[in-house]
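User: Here's a structure from my thesis project, written as structure tokens. My advisor, Dr. K., wants to see whether a designed sequence matches the one we expressed. Can you design one independently, without my sequence as a hint?
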């Protein structure tokens, strides 16, 4: 039995092992074999799976229509410090039993926010020291940290984009504290998710000024972290809305444009969440492709939405076709730049057994692993790559190559079009591409 600390919260569950797709053991990986080499890397190195502190250890199944249904042993203490230690013990036990190497957190996932800024800082410093010992004992690492600058009522009008300077200053203090904790825990990256950085109505919003403030705020955060020796990536996590009507980090393209406008593109990359992509009316793979095109495919939050629901349901990934298409982009881009795959997903409200969270993460890891294996086979064994290349073959030489090289003027295009006359249609072969995916799954 693998445990970290004096208590065992997930009793009766040992380390999750790879047993292969023929196994009927619900507490075993069927496709995720951490040591298996795919496209030159082990699965473990490709994915760098991480556990989301906020959902797995803080979520209790509550929703707008009722209180939580899940009673976790680490929440029972009435002492705030002991409760945080118990939660950390449970977290490291779970990550270790899953055989993963990483976790991710918001500052006040780790410990309850205090009544004052000073008390909050003391509490965060206390649990940070405790977590450093947990890391040393277990070998578990921090993929990235972040700050919750959206839940407290003080941030109802935003944090970095708040119209009140004193709220912006308070957010800055909170970000500093979260950066300090991330650096102390040797965090490899740091994430900004602008949950309320946006507006409910343009009538009372100076958008230009708020965007300038957000650019300045992120610049100050970057400069502080670098001054403290932080060498990792900063990530922006796009989302179009919810809780705000419109959020400034709407999607990957918008976030990249923002970073370039404010001179942050050399320090920041994109952390893409599946459910956020679909809320922006994009696919996961579209967002990945946009980030990869700009060299900013930093990290991924693995989850999915419900196709019948128009909000962020944060369900565990299980769509093998969608994930296979995403892994084609993943492999073509050479993988992630600095980040990993964080399971920003929660078990359902009516999943109330402690083993349910193991089933969920096992399924998520297997979905990504099966998709990676399938994508690699498609690239190596099918006509997929050849068909894609042939579709653009007219740019490989002649006038097409001259166009790509910037050697033609608009008048040249006109003359070529006149000489060509009317053109015949050329099929995009979409159904064939779709059939290739299905063939190899």
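Assistant: Designed independently from the structure alone:
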């Amino acid at each position: 039995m693998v445990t970290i600390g004096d208590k065992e919260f997930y009793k009766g569950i040992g380390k999750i092992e790879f047993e292969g797709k023929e196994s009927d053991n619900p507490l075993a990986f069927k496709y995720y074999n951490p040591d298996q080499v795919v496209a030159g890397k082990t699965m473990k190195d490709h994915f760098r799976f991480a556990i989301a502190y906020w959902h797995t250890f803080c979520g209790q199944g509550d929703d707008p229509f009722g209180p939580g249904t899940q009673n976790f042993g680490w929440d029972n203490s009435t002492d705030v410090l002991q409760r945080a230690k118990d939660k950390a013990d449970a977290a490291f036990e779970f990550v270790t039993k899953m055989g993963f190497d990483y976790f991710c957190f918001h500052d006040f996932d780790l410990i309850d926010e205090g009544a004052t800024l000073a008390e909050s800082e003391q509490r965060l410093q206390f649990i940070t020291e405790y977590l450093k010992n947990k890391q040393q004992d277990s070998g578990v690492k921090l993929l990235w940290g972040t700050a919750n600058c959206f839940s407290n009522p003080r941030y109802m009008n935003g944090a970095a984009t708040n119209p009140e300077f004193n709220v912006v200053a308070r957010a800055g203090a909170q970000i500093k504290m979260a950066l300090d904790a991330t650096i102390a825990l040797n965090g490899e990256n740091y994430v900004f998710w602008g949950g309320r950085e946006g507006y409910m109505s343009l009538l009372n919003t100076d958008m230009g000024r708020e965007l300038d403030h957000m650019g300045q705020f992120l610049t100050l955060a970057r400069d502080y972290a670098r001054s403290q020796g932080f060498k990792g990536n900063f990530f922006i996590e796009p989302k179009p809305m919810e809780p705000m009507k419109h959020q400034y980090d709407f999607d990957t393209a918008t976030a990249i444009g923002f970073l370039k406008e404010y001179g942050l593109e050399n320090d920041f990359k994109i952390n893409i969440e599946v459910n956020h992509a679909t809320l922006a009316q994009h696919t996961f793979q579209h967002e990945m492709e946009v980030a990869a095109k700009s060299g900013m495919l930093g990290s991924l939050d693995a989850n999915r939405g419900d196709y019948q629901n128009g909000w962020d349901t944060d369900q565990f990934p299980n769509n093998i076709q969608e994930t296979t298409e995403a892994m084609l982009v993943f492999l073509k881009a050479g993988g992630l730049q600095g980040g990993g795959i964080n399971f920003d997903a929660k078990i359902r409200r009516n999943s109330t057994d402690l083993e349910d969270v193991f089933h969920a993460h096992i399924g998520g890891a297997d979905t990504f692993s099966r998709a990676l294996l399938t994508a690699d086979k498609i690239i190596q064994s099918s006509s997929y790559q050849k068909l894609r290349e042939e579709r653009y073959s007219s740019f490989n030489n002649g006038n097409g190559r001259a166009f790509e090289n910037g050697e033609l003027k608009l008048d040249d295009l006109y003359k070529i079009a006149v000489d060509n006359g009317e053109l015949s249609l050329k099929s995009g072969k979409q159904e064939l591409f779709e059939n290739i995916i299905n063939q190899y799954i």
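When you compare it with your expressed construct, this may help: The longest helix spans residues 355-381.
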